Amino acid sequence: MNTERFNKLKENFKNRNIDVKYFDSLDDVKLYLLNTVPLECKVGIGHSGTLQKMNITNLLIQRGNVVYDKELAKNKDESKAIKKEALLSDWYISGSNAVTVDGRIINVDHSGNRVAAITFGPDKVVIVVGVNKVVDTVEEGVKRVKNIAGPLNAKRAGYNPPCVELNKCVDCSSKERVCNYLSIVEGQTDCNRIKLCIVNEECGF
Ligand code: SF4
């Protein structure tokens, strides 16, 4: 991502009260998180290939944080309980499906826990996004979310909506539909709540 594009993105998010930080690598984001998230707080994790690549859940647990990550659940009931606890955590760390240069954060969810936590719940939210997910506009972002993230997320989670076979979204009404909740963050009132970390690596989908 060139400097001019990043500066434009940062300025547009600043106008929407959201601070953006730029990192050269996921390792740098990892250090930032470990230095910024307090030891004594509870941390919710939004499921994300980017966060898994950073191994952030285990690193936070090892140093003493209480972490709510549904990936630690042994069964569906436990997963649901963890998602609820994550909503009441002090911090929430998540990936995102797309961010736009004009200043929006776009996510789709199967059960809605991640978009709920990003929207309201934890007092501090950090969203980590690779440059591969930066697009110019909301229209492009939604297209990306539906046609790239949708099919790949469905496949990863073991669901089989039509996009898995077709490799594109057909706006299905399948029982296997994975994108039940579409969220667009357009700004925030508290400039210290959501922080966006853009990392100069291809991360997740
Ligand atoms: S609406 Fe259906 S077809 Fe489209 S991305 Fe979501 S699950 Fe796939």
Report the bound ligands by name, code or SMILES.
iron/sulfur cluster
- Silhouette: globular
What's the CATH first level? Alpha Beta
Provide the gyration radius in Å.
16 Å
Helical segment count: 8
In CATH terms, what is the architecture?
3-Layer(aba) Sandwich
| Strand element count | 10
- Record the strand order, biggest sheet: 1-10-7-4-2-3
- The structure class reads alpha/beta
Main sheet specs: 6 strands, parallel
Helix content: 40-55%
Question: How would you describe this protein?
Answer:
This protein has 205 residues and is of the alpha/beta class. It has one domain (3-137, 184-199): 3-Layer(aba) Sandwich (Rossmann fold). Helices cover 40% and strands 22% of the residues. It is built from eight helices and ten strands. The protein has helices spanning 3-15, 26-36, 49-54, 56-63, 76-87, 113-119, 138-157, 162-166; strands spanning 19-23, 42-45, 66-69, 91-94, 98-100, 105-109, 124-130, 134-135, 181-185, 194-199. The strands form two sheets. The chain has a six-stranded parallel β-sheet with strand order 1-10-7-4-2-3, sandwiched between helices. A hairpin with a 4-residue loop joins β5 and β6 (105-109). α5 packs parallel to α6 (113-119). The chain is globular and about 45 Å long. The two termini are 17 Å apart. Residues 146, 150-151, 154, 161-163, 169-172, 174, 177-179 line the site of iron/sulfur cluster.
